[in-house]
Design brief:
about 350 residues, alpha/beta, Rossmann fold, 13 helices, 9 strands, binds zinc ion
């Protein structure tokens, strides 16, 4: 009988010896764009969690991984602010232009890949990630079957931070809530944390779960995110808010209400950020294949009369009106969209049968 240690499950990307190559990705790509091969400036990070390597080769500063944030004060003391390129926290937060707010480790990569791509290898746009849960309720099978909650939580947190490194995120915040808090209709902690993050980042675009999702924890995150944004001063609210696909697609949305996010041509990057979630995929739940498959299906089945101009498309629900105008009832807004789908099916079928 073989044992499975924690070590192989922790991606090598966070090993100090491997980290420099990943951290330099963004800078190399930026430099290539500018046709200037200069090295990145020395980071002013004062994080003391890891000493610089004693190598003759120049080495970047380690990623800054603050279990206790100096700038924000999330509710849970076990929350974590991870800054892949080790910029000071205030600077890292203020540069965020696209913010993803997801329930579980991996949700951002599956649903908000458009935002990740919009910001990838750019120095004028930065993706910020927020994961709300602690991973304690994760399914586990295969090589992870015997892992207790504490180890599973550590693995999932590590996997999420690895995706943040690969995707070049400006910041990755893990709020470490149990699902029960997120699903509670009375708990205010998550909403307050998200308000703090939104105030510190002031993103132009926010990606979160769509309110018609099947997963109760996803719905809890969406509601908290919407409530947080609706309580911000009007001039601090994001311009665009998109509810994204995970546990239900959005094919049913009337086309005029779909946010069409074309992510074609970057399947390699999608595979890279999705593939690090080994603890969820190795047991046989192929989220990585299913996610790209859904995007391919969206691209092909969107329009029956034209050839495929795109090969990978994510659908989103436009939630911006709910944030612009806090008097709009969230349940009524989503119910109206469902009603439009209902009417579309009923009218088409009735016309053909001759009942209209
Ligand atoms: Zn999820």
């Amino acid at each position: 009988m073989s044992t499975f240690s924690l070590k192989p499950a922790i991606p090598a990307a966070l090993d100090p010896g491997f980290l420099p190559a990943l951290l330099y990705n963004r800078h190399y790509l930026q430099s290539a764009r500018k046709n200037s091969p200069k090295l990145p400036p020395e980071s002013p990070c004062m994080c003391l969690t890891r000493k610089p390597a004693g190598s003759a080769k120049p080495s970047p500063q380690p990623a800054c991984r603050n279990s206790k944030s100096n700038f924000m004060k999330p509710h849970n003391p076990t929350s974590e602010v991870f800054i892949p390129d080790a910029k000071p926290e205030a600077e890292a937060l203020q540069r965020i232009t696209h913010l993803g707010i997801g329930a579980h480790q991996d949700d951002l990569e599956f649903m908000a890949f458009h935002g990740i791509l919009e910001c990838f290898a750019r120095d004028d746009r930065w993706f910020g990630g927020v994961t709300c849960t602690n991973g304690a309720g994760s399914s586990r099978s295969g090589p992870y079957a015997a892992f207790p909650d504490t180890e599973m939580m550590a693995i999932r947190r590590q996997e999420q931070n690895t995706a943040a490194i690969i995707g070049g995120y400006g910041v990755m915040i893990q709020l470490d809530y149990p699902s029960s808090t997120i699903k509670s209709p009375t708990a205010q902690e998550l909403k307050e944390d998200l308000k703090q993050i939104l105030t510190a980042t002031r993103p132009e675009v926010v990606y979160t779960h769509n309110p018609a999702d099947k997963h109760d924890t996803h719905i809890g995150v969406t509601v908290a995110a919407l409530q947080a944004m609706r309580e911000l001063p009007h001039d601090q609210r994001p311009k665009q808010v998109i509810g994204c696909e995970v546990w239900r697609n959005l094919d049913w949305l009337p086309d005029e209400h779909k946010v069409i996010m074309d992510v074609s041509g970057r399947d390699n990057l999608a595979a890279a950020v999705n593939g690090v979630f080994d603890s969820q995929i190795a047991g046989g739940k192929r989220y990585d294949i299913a996610t790209l498959g859904r995007r391919a299906a969206n691209a092909t089945f969107f329009n029956s009369h034209s050839t495929d101009a795109s090969t990978q498309v994510i659908f989103g629900m436009d939630l911006s009106p709910l944030v612009t105008d806090e008097s709009i009832d969230i349940v009524a807004y989503v119910s109206d969209l469902l009603e439009q789908f209902h009417d579309d099916v009923r009218i088409k079928l009735s016309q053909r049968i001759g009942q209209s």
